Amino acid sequence: MIFGERIRLRAADREDLPRFTAWLNDPEVRTGVSMIMPLSLVEEEAWFEKLQQASPYERPLVIEVAEGDHWIPIGDCGYHAMDWRNRSAELGIFIGEKNYWNQGYGGEAMRLLLKHGFNVLNLDRIFLRVFSNNLRAIRCYEKIGFVHEGCFRQAEFQDGKYHDVMIMSVLRSEWNANQRDDAGK
Question: H helices within 87-171, ranges in order?
Answer without folding.
Answer: 105-119, 135-144
